[in-house]
Amino acid sequence: IGAAKLVVVVAIFLFTFYVISQVFEIKMDANLGHIFARSALDAAARSTKPPRYKCGISKACPEKHFAFKMASGAANVVGPKICVEDNVLMSGVKNNVGRGINVALVNGKTGEPLDTKFFDMWGGDVAPFIEFLKSIQDGTIVLMGTYDDGATKLNEEARKLIAELGSTSITNLGFRDNWVFCGGKGIKTKSPFEQHIKNNKDTNKYEGWPEVVEMEGCIPQKQD
């Protein structure tokens, strides 16, 4: 009887071990399957994730074009931002923006940045701005964005010089309007790259300022 019991105990032990090992293997297989499934899903997600284009614009620019994206300032709190060819030229983070009109100059042939400046059109003097506008070389891409107020000190001469860069809205730019513009020195037509929103206490997003204006696009490379 003792031997029979021993055989039964051993048999039960072996059967239990077999069952446990089978369940464990199944669980292992399930876990491996889950891991592989997750890897496949992650790979699919990566392949379906929309590609990122220069400056974060919505679609790729064609050959011989420079990608740009820009935004005006938000009230008197957040400065404007100008990006060309994935290079942030001006922003609050870079600490090179200021009240008034912010300007970035870019080489029209190479897309290389040339200069960045801001001119205070509320408490400053328009004369240095006019001299700066006159000094811009032919073939230069000019990007401008307002912050806080970009119009109070603007005079007819300054507005005319900006209009010659391709702007149509500059003649109507008023106190605390938000405006972004991309044109060029020597441009023969009006620029398609311009956004302007009027300061209006009835429609302003912020108490004394309108909402931010943003713009993106592809600037044709200057050809010889």
TrEMBL record:
PROSITE patterns according to UniProt: GG_LECTIN
Q: Which Gene Ontology CC terms are recorded?
A: extracellular region
Q: Does the keyword Ligase apply?
A: no
This protein's UniProt keywords: Disulfide bond, Lectin, Secreted, Signal
Query: Where is this protein localized, as stated in its record?
Result: Secreted
Family the entry assigns = Belongs to the FAM3 family.
What is this protein's record name? FAM3C protein
Species this protein is from: Brachypteracias leptosomus (short-legged ground-roller)
Q: Which gene encodes it?
A: Fam3c_1
